[in-house]
Design a protein that fits this description.
The chain is an alpha+beta fold and 157 residues long. Helices cover 33% and strands 35% of the residues.
Length: 157
Amino acid sequence: MAKKTHQEKNSNLVAQNRKARHDYTVLSTIEAGLVLTGTEIKSVRAHRVTLKDGYAQIRNGEAWLMNVHIAEYDQGNIYNHDPLRNRKLLLHKKELRRLSGELSKQGIALIPLKMYIKHGYAKVLLGVAQGKHQYDKREAIKKRETDRQIARVMKHY
């Protein structure tokens, strides 16, 4: 069997939150399912999702995805959904208990990193993350630049 290219591996990727890894230090990740309506899943399959300002919360023993924009479906007419509605996340009780324990700590947030289709179902990769300070962000940029320069020099030798 031929090795999959980078393009084929991420063909089911719907949306990615690139800003998340810049603003947060991701401590761990967890995959969760989504409860979506008919027009929402059609918009997700059309890659019309924005995760940029999204976050997740645990309320009353249930996980909810907040502030994630799933655009209205073009052919949805009166059955269209609210683009910014809160969506329930599907997690096991054991996972919910573990996450709520981690989220009770100061400065820890639950943020969506990626949304993708897996076996026909929409999934969200959530990151348990800690916010970075401005100087941490600058330090990360500086380190990335030096790594690139080293790679350029090493390529010639």
